[in-house]
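Trying the structure run again after the queue cleared.
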Amino acid sequence: MIKSFFSFFICLILLNQSSAYTADKEENNIFPFEIQLLHKYGYINKSGDVIVPPKFDMAYPFTDNIAVFRIGNYYGFINKNNKISEAKFNNIRSSKDGLILAEIGNKWGFFNDKGETVIKAIFDDAYTFSEGLAKISINKKYGYIDLKGKIVINPIYDYAESFSDDLAQASKQNVDSTFINKSGKTVIKTKKDYIYDFSEGLAPTLIDDKYGYITKSGKKIISSKFEQARGFKEGIAQVKINNKWGIIDKTGKYIVNPKFSNMKPFYENLCAVELNNKWGFLDRSGKMVVKTKYNEVGNFYEDLALIKTDNKYGYINSKGSIVIKPLFDSGKDFHNGLALVNGYSYINKMGNYIWTPAVYAEDIEKKNNKSIVENPIYNLSKDDKVCVNQWGINTGFCGVIESVSDSSYLINVKEINCENGKCLGACSNKLVIDIKSKNRSDLLIGKNLFLIEVPKDCITDIQK
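Done. Tokens:
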């Protein structure tokens, strides 16, 4: 029986990605899980075996051959060989093409999957490589480096984007929007409101609150008449006009007439569309392959898509046939053979449960002959000093225990927004109650008026 007090949360690590995973095939796949009352995360493999027991303060999905975790205020990762790196990074922004973009000592650099330095951490900011170049920042100016870390376009720009279709937007203050090539030469200079990334030779451009498309020479090729416009891929683009979505080709001719109230991007050559408050799927030719009859849908991954009907979630194949019956209260897309359902459990493509936190907890309790959450992590007393990481990686509060009850501590807060590794606790999503003040808490610190009540098992580190 699944215990109601367990829950599971999946978080994505990459700032430059949407909620979708990449579709790349990876040699090794591990999946994060959380035991909430321990406030700890671990990893299972595709068979449901626990590869790493719950010991991390946060754990993220496996993507591009690494899985990122957090211990206290610092990040590390697990590589494709299940080797766990040291948690030494202030932040890990992304992993792509074998290069891990991470911050250490307040500077950004690139590392391999062993944690070894590939490009020294000397940049104030840095972004993922795209088309062989990465945007970096030095002294609040942007430029670009190559895969060896050499600066190939000097950091002289006040605003810049990553390269796409061999061009990148890079502008100086009070200068019209410009695009440069990989030699740093300006190739487009425009007074248009905004130009988005180029793809397949065209870019959406915003003029007077309407979208159209221009070529790399800056020539308008599709007039500005759309309310929204997405980039071209495989010769077609999704556009919105008169509050309806459709699909056009590179001449601006409609492949799919604008009639849908909503339209998601294509995944595995199918895109989800909404009509009359129901969802279905169409292919790139505009043919409706799954009728609009579902209350909700996900995207197609690994030939399966999440659907919701009669307030339950299940999965269909690309022909619209139900493969896994709608039996779940919640669901996520399939990735690497597994999908998250009911908030915390994994199923395989047969619809069979592979792993649940409750089963794991029961196994541990039987083995140890005691509850895994029987005692709080720390048994504190009045006047003990504590730190709790409640509001972010480097922010939280530190204070002194004022009184102790059976289940909670009353803390007199002495410092908030703790930095420099001072707040090493982990309070997860536990409620913290402000007893005497709801506003201007910073002014109340020092007057011994800022008191909060925290559940005992929230405290995971003591300030010495």
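The first helix runs from residue 357 to 368. Worth checking whether this holds up in the mutant runs.
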